Amino acid sequence: MSQTGSIPTVSIYGIPFSKLTMKETVQVLEEAVLSKQPHQVITANPIMVMAALENPAIMKVMKDAEMIVPDGTGVVWAAGYCGDPVAERVPGFELLHELLRVGENYRWGVYLLGSTPEVIQETAVRLQQQYPAIRIVGYRDGFFGSDEDEQVVASIRQAEPDLLFVARGADTQEPWIHKYKHALQVPVMMGVGGSFDIISGKMKRAPKLFQKLRLEWFYRLLREPSRAGRMLALPKFALKVMRDKENVTKVR
Description:
Largest sheet: 6 strands, parallel
Order of helices and strands: EEHEHHEHHEHEHEHEHHHHH
Mean pLDDT: 92
Helix content: 40-55%
Number of strands: 8
């Protein structure tokens, strides 16, 4: 089950979102690691869908991914609203932890890429404490230019990780993984956005109440008002889905 062809999906504006539960998602990715074939996993939300609709290059990255999971509540709502629901929300933060939990059984190697030198170092320390049986085979911060890409790719390849987590912001991490997917040769590669900030303790995750009400995005907005511009994509997405209801899930 290494290709999206065998994963049940719903098309949201041409982007194939997995309909699997968290448990099934982890099983598929466990098989992906054992297959040794490179898989790019994208944890997508409405902001990324809107970006893909405006930018053909982002759309190509999304369509080429081996698996896209519905990380955003808005995506889960849209699929249900248009009559082709997904099983549940699959948040990237939880998926990262579930993969590490399974990885302990196999002693998987993990490479962490992105964020600041302090955050990435603290993330490596904390994950190793939390999952003692996984192997942190390498980490480096995200402050490198495209002229250093080949050197970074070479050092990741040399470390031979089973999992690669990249935190470089949604606009750069997914295209970067897409560009170097075959050169990296890592079985499972996933962009994880701000996850390292939370794991390292630099940032707090939304309180349980916000998580339960599916308002993590609102909590982040309260903490970081500078995100307001990006957040405008959420109501725009909802209005667009309501307007396009009959055509949202048509495969393009």
